[in-house]
Amino acid sequence: MNYLQRELFLITLHQQFTDMFLASKAGKDNAEQKLRSQGFIHAGELLELCSRQEVQQLMEQVHHEVFGVSIAKRQPSEQSRRQHALSLGDYDYFDEPAINRLR
Question: Quick check: 2 pLDDT over 90?
Fold first, then answer.
């Protein structure tokens, strides 16, 4: 594994995470950025430029830089999402099978 390639990969991934989280913070759709990052991560793992654990740590670090809290603390609980949907009368939320909502 080439050290420079690894560093370039991690720097680029850091920027992708930053862009993705900033878009999320601004309320913009970041689905395309998520897919691009997932593909980039998969390629990095195949080329042995990163490990899953390194990616998780980097994602947590960038999330904390952008939002000021961990990913786990920012994600609303399933119960609060359900209550929010009920209060808004958003019954589309319940169209999705419960097993999928828990993931």
Answer: no
